[in-house]
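Q: Trace C-alpha cell order:
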Amino acid sequence: MRIDLHSHSSVSDGTDAPKAVIDHAVAAGLDVLALTDHDTVAGHAEAAAHLPPGFTLVPGMELSCAHMGSSVHLLGYLFDPDAPELAAELERIRTDRLHRAESMVERLRAAGVDVTWERVREIAGDVDGDDVVGRPHLARAIVEAGAAENVQDAFDRWIGSGGPAYVARYALDPVRAVGLVRAAGGVCALAHPARGEGSLTGAVPDELVERMAAAGLGGIEADHPAHDDDESAHWRGRAADLGLVVTGSSDDHGDLSGHRLGCRTTDPDAYARLIGPATGARPVVGA
C-alpha cells in the first residue's frame, strides 16, 4: 500500500483541481492520499466524488501557525470541520487571508503593477461556496500582468516574505493548533520541520515540538522532499524519542512542484497508528 499524506489542490496553493489531484495520485500508483489544502476543506467534496473504486481519500488540512515570527505548519487529519472553536479559527484565518490579498493588490497597483482584485478573485474561483484567495492566485495575476516571468518569480520579486507587496498574515500558535485539531476529533503531524535553509538551520525548535507532543501531536513528517538525509534522520530520531509516528509525504503542488505525488510515502503501519485515535471523520474509500 502506497500512502501520501500531504498534497495541495487549486483551492489553496496547488495548480490542479481536486479531482485532477486524485487522477494524478492514481497515475502515480498511490492507494491512499490526504488532501491537505491550506486552512480549508473546500476541495474535499470534489475529491471524494471522483475516487476510483478502492482508492482512499484522507480528508485533511495544513494549518497556518507561527512561533516567534517563524512559520510552523501543522497537518490535521480526520477532524470535524464544523467543531465550533476550530471552525471559528478557520474563518478568522480565511477572512484575514482575503484582507491580506486585497492589501497586496493595493501595494502592487501603487508600484505600477496592473493587477485588479476582480481578476484575482476570478483566478481563485469559488469552491463549494468557500471564498479562498491566496498568494498563488495573486502570483498568477502578476504573471498575467507581465510583471513576472512565472509564479516563482512573482513571489521572489513581489509577494514573498520581505517583498515590496508582502503583507503579514494571522497564524495560530502551534500548540493551540494541535489542541484545536484534537478537540475536533482529529489527529495531526508536524509538517516539514526542517524546511528552510538546509542542515537544521531554521528547523522547528525541539522545545516547541515537545510541547506540541504533550498537547497531542501524533506524528512528524520526517520524510519530505525538502529534507536531506541528515535532516530526515534527525527528525526520525526525534519522533522515536517522543513516541510519535514518522510520516512521509510529497507535499505536491502540481505544476509548481513538478507533479511529485508519491515521491515520499508513509509506512502502512505508521499510517494506521496515526489515524487510529481519530473520531471526527473517517477516510473515504471509492466505491
Q: What stands out?
A: Strands lie at 3-4, 32-35, 56-67, 70-77, 187-190, 219-223, 245-248, 284-285. DSSP finds ten helices and eight strands in the chain.
